[in-house]
Amino acid sequence: MDCSNIYIYIICIYGFQDPSDCTSPHYHQAPFLTLENDEPLYTSYETCGFLSDYSHTIYSSFLQNKHLRVSYPDDSPTGYTLVTDTDGEKVGSFPAFMTALFDMYDMTTETVELSNASLDRFPLSTYTACVHDVALNRTDLCIGDFWRTSDRLLMAPFTDNLFQDLFYLVTPELEGRTTLEYLMAPFRPFEPIVWILTFTSFFFFIMLFYLVEVNLFFL
Question: Which site from 3, 48, 140, 188 is most exposed, i.e. has the minimal number of CB atoms within 10 Å?
Answer without folding.
Answer: 188
